[in-house]
Design goal:
By secondary structure, the chain is α+β, with helices and mostly antiparallel strands. The chain is 49% helix and 9% strand. 24% of the residues are buried.
């Protein structure tokens, strides 16, 4: 698999006079979705200078852009952002050699926050659209919160859960199954829709203050995107799960993370049953 581009910010560190390219080779184990990078890749970052990755091509593997299957409609695993994703992968543990980062500054090792920022900058240099690259950067940065501040990370993750719950109540309110949110209450449906949309923007922006410093923009973008795409995400998740259940049957709950999969399935089923019950027992 080969992707060629002619951009000044990227270069071939081993043959500077040649046009840089990405050459991927699948690992020998066909059961793993991992690839080797046959040629090293260089990127000229505006703040950190020339970044050359990986340290060891023979042991560096990548799963390309790490995106859950149900979100590939929004962020494909390959495309013009692939070079940025590979640089980010190489700057993120585990590295190709244990105990040695694939690239480091002369004075201090690169932080995960910096690696995430490099990813966003590289996507910009590759011409990715503004909204798309900020959304992708936000999704990638959310797990970084745990490394910055565990307390703030927990608060941030709880804020995302709160957005989902509020979105659920907003849906009930819109369909006149109770009066749950004061800003929607018992109004005309299109007024409720507009007020619900306003809440889907304002509430995540306020809750973004709970995230660690340096990640509040990511928290705000993720929160607003989650609120705006909540119903689309649920629909895509339902279709994805239905397909996987039909295709793999009980193996959908196979290791790894078996109990997490079972727990998420049980939680989703409980949410469906509770929603059904709420629609049947509540009215305006």
């Amino acid at each position: 698999m080969e992707f060629d581009k002619q951009l000044e910010q990227f270069f071939d560190p081993d043959s500077p006079s040649d046009r840089w390219s990405i050459v991927l080779r699948h690992v020998e184990d066909d059961t793993q979705d991992s690839w080797y990078l046959e040629r090293r890749l260089g990127y000229r970052d505006k703040e950190l200078g020339d970044i050359v990755v990986p340290r060891n091509k023979a042991t560096f593997t990548t799963d390309l852009t790490s995106v859950p299957q149900m979100f590939t409609w929004l962020v494909p695993r390959t495309g013009t952002h692939l070079a940025a994703a590979l640089v980010h992968d190489a700057l993120t543990p585990p590295f190709s050699e244990q105990g040695k980062p694939d690239w480091e500054t002369p004075d201090l090792p690169i932080t995960q926050l910096q690696a995430d920022r490099v990813f966003r900058s590289a996507m910009a240099d590759l011409g990715r659209p503004l909204l798309r690259r900020w959304m992708v950067w936000s999704a990638v940065s959310i797990p970084t919160a745990w490394q910055v501040s565990k307390v703030r990370a927990v608060l941030g993750y709880l804020s995302l859960a709160a957005i989902v719950v509020l979105g659920w109540f907003a849906t009930l309110d819109l369909f006149d199954r109770g009066q749950w949110l004061p800003w929607m209450a018992n109004r005309t449906w299109y007024i409720e829709l507009l007020l619900g949309a306003a809440g889907a923007i304002l509430v995540p922006l306020v809750l973004a203050l709970l995230w660690p410093s340096g990640l509040r923009k990511a928290g705000a973008i993720t929160g607003v995107a989650l609120a705006a795409l909540l119903h689309v995400t649920i629909a895509v998740a339902a279709v994805t799960f239905g397909y996987q259940l039909a295709e793999y049957r009980l193996r959908v709950w196979a290791p790894p993370k078996r109990w997490l999969k079972i727990g998420l399935t049980a939680a989703a089923l409980a949410a469906v049953l509770l929603t059904y019950w709420m629609f049947g027992h509540y009215d305006s």
